[in-house]
Fold this sequence. Notes:
The protein is α/β, with parallel strands linked by helices. It has 9 helices and 19 strands. The strands form 4 sheets. A 9-stranded mixed beta sheet has the order 6-19-18-11-12-13-16-9-10. The chain has a 6-stranded mixed beta sheet with strand order 2-1-3-4-5-17, with helices on both faces. A two-stranded antiparallel ribbon has the order 7-8.
Amino acid sequence: xxxxxxxxxxxxxxxxxxxxxxxxxxxxxxxxxxxxxxxxxxxxxxxxxxxxxxxxxxxxxxxxxxxxxxxxxxxxxxxxxxxxxxxxxxxxxxxxxxxxxxxxxxxxxxxxxxxxxxxxxxxxxxxxxxxxxxxxxxxxxxxxxxxxxxxxxxxxxxxxxxxxxxxxxxxxxxxxxxxxxxxxxxxxxxxxxxxxxxxxxxxxxxxxxxxxxxxxxxxxxxxxxxxxxxxxxxxxxxxxxxxxxxxxxxxxxxxxxxxxxxxxxxxxxxxxxxxxxxxxxxxxxxxxxxxxxxxxxxxxxxxxxxxxxxxxxxxxxxxxxxxxxxxxxxxxxxxxxxxxxxxxxxxxxx
Length: 350
């Protein structure tokens, strides 16, 4: 796994919009304020041509223009890292216009974003053997003041931190104010299961207050991950074989999927062979949090698959679309511990 150089003091941050840009409110105001904050911190700013564009459907511009921007800014020597402007809906359509061969040949560069940006963070690891940060998009950095999770993301980008911890509360409903901080009112309530001991049959899970898992981090937003299946961008099998001795921790979260969509996604990934060599699952709060449909809830939607792999799973983690989220380095080695209702992720870059 290749790890990029960290963002240095007075380095230059590049911004791209391979998914939604920051044309409309509240994203424009938030992004503009984030740029002011970074400039005040002494960083240079290198904005791609699509950052304020709104010409595409579900993305900032046409797939061709978005793919060109992403390639050009990744291989460019005018910036030291890239932060995506935002998430969106159809970043998958730009992939055929991204020159992954040129990206492979270029010096590795940190890319940060989440949600639809799974299309880059996941493929950088599985196609290019380059680590990426599954973390907040650029507009989030416009909040006043920064939440500790946002600061954690910046510290990872700067190489000042490799260990992140869960946060005490999470946001169920945010404010419409573009610069408002997270409105964290709901206490963190992790749930975990592990293979049951002293059970007469395999595939039995029991609830636990403590869990530990070690392996290489891989994953992202399930809505996006399942779109790779069966395409030329699905090189997961080769990636798994390359690092099979490490084993894998799959970190997963969902945006638009309801509980049945989550269960179908887990089934698809499993039957595509993606969960070979799995050592554990870290599951974020889904946007459909608390939903139940025809007797299926968000936990059983995942457990049905996890049981067959006899590994621990931690759910309702600070990961995904219900902030705050722990920034995770896709491709890194990690040890994840849950104890006393808290979570710690220690990452190694090897």
